[in-house]
Specification:
InterPro entries: DNA_methylase_N6_adenine_CS (IPR002052), SAM-dependent_MTases_sf (IPR029063), Small_mtfrase_dom (IPR007848), tRNA_Adenine-N(6)_MTase (IPR050210). The protein is of the alpha/beta class and 256 residues long. Helices cover 29% and strands 27% of the residues.
Length: 256
């Protein structure tokens, strides 16, 4: 499989990725990482990390963050390990570790895999987003990264809740069509949900949904102002989105 070496955050870190035939990291991972706004020494779990894009983006912007990349696919977990070791990431590699495990592990099996109870301050995730009834990608790696199961959010958020400290923050990016499943899976686990729709341009339908929540919070759900990737004309990113995409700012929560 041919690889590419791609720069992110304007050269703050690099990722080895498959050139084709697998999911390649882009803006979704960078915006997901921007949801972590915490200057303290914190432990962050990136569930379904792939080659490690979102976790690396958190580590590059937050020098006190230690990040665990959790990936089920042996091939993609190997890319994540290689990315912690390449010369371009020397300043970050010691703060990132890789666990090759299924996010949906439960109980003793999850703990033995390296995901203990009540351990992480932040859990981030970019779950598979295609309905299982959709046409699957022809490549096995890409199909695995993109195809969701019926109970995906329930199983992934169950794990996030188990491994997160009380008061810890959940952050995820998904398709807007998943909003009902996400809210249902958060249930009594996560409160204070803040939802932001991402639109390509004013007047166009949303294509992504950002969600943050706090473990054990009783606060109400809030819909935040939408984000627009571009202006009405041209293809340049809007200033705020460009800042999130390149690690120059965080997308801060309104409350706790």
């Amino acid at each position: 499989m041919n690889d590419t070496l791609d720069a992110f955050h304007r050269g703050a870190f690099y990722l080895l990725q498959p050139a084709q035939g697998a999911h390649r990291a882009g803006m979704d991972a960078m915006v997901l990482a921007s949801l972590v706004d915490d200057e303290r020494p914190v432990r962050v779990a990136d569930l379904g990390a792939g080659a490690g894009a979102a976790g690396f983006a958190v580590a590059a912007r937050l020098p006190n963050a230690e990040v665990v990349l959790v990936e089920r696919s042996p091939e993609m977990a190997d890319y994540a390990r290689r990315n912690t070791a390449i010369e371009q990431n020397r300043a970050l590699g010691s703060r990132l570790t890789v666990i090759e495990a299924d996010v949906t592990l439960r109980g003793k099996a999850r703990v033995e895999a390296g995901l203990p109870d009540d351990h992480f301050h932040h859990v981030i995730m970019n779950p598979p987003f295609n309905d299982a009834r959709d046409r699957r990608a022809p490549n096995a790696l890409k199909a695995e990264a993109h195809a969701m199961t019926e109970d995906l959010f329930e199983s992934w958020l169950r794990t996030a809740n188990a491994i997160m400290i009380p008061g810890g923050q959940l952050s995820l990016i998904a398709r807007p069509s998943s909003v009902a499943a996400i809210i249902a899976a958060c249930g009594k686990r996560f409160g204070g949900l803040e939802l932001t729709a991402i639109h390509p341009r004013p007047g166009e339908d949303a294509i992504r949904l950002l969600v943050t929540g706090i473990k054990g919070s009783k606060s109400r759900l809030v819909w935040r102002s939408p984000l627009f990737m571009h202006g009405e004309e041209g293809h340049a990113f809007a200033a705020e989105v460009d800042g999130l995409n390149n690690g120059r700012k965080a997308y801060r929560r309104k409350g706790r």
